[in-house]
Amino acid sequence: MTRTHSVLTGLVAAAAATTLGLGVVSQATASPAASPQRTVAHPAAAAVAADLPIHRGKYWTLGGCQEAGQQGIDRGHWSRYQCAKGTLQYSLWTDR
To answer: Do 42 and 90 contact (CB within 8 A), yes or no?
Structure first.
């Protein structure tokens, strides 16, 4: 039982490290000038902006959130979006 618990704990820690690492890579490789409609904000600044009232979902990485936001613009579902960093995930907020 103890060995199984140790293995599971190790796997969870490895998964968390991988997820956090991917988030850092996504932030480092993201091109801020790629889309003028995109807004990426710090949690304090993104406490749900009044002009982006609709919460669309949560994403493990900034890149995943930005991809979903840009796909919504490309499909005409909304005209602006914001990826706000939370404790563990990024929240996607849109204007409509």
So the answer is: no
Going by pLDDT thresholds of 50, 70 and 90, the confidence category of residue 51 is confident
Is the pLDDT assigned to residue 41 strictly greater than 90? Answer: no
Return the bridge partners of 54, or none.
94
CA gap 66, 81 in Å, rounded: 8
Dist CA 10 CA 85 (whole Å): 26
Shortest CA distance to 41 belongs to which of 84, 6, 72? Answer: 84
Which of 40, 21, 45, 50 shows the shortest CA–CA distance to 90? Answer: 40
Q: What angle do CA 54, 42, 56 make, to 5 degrees?
A: 20
Comparison of pLDDT for 80 and 14, the residue scoring more:
80
- Residue 23 pLDDT more than 80? no
Amino acid at 32: P
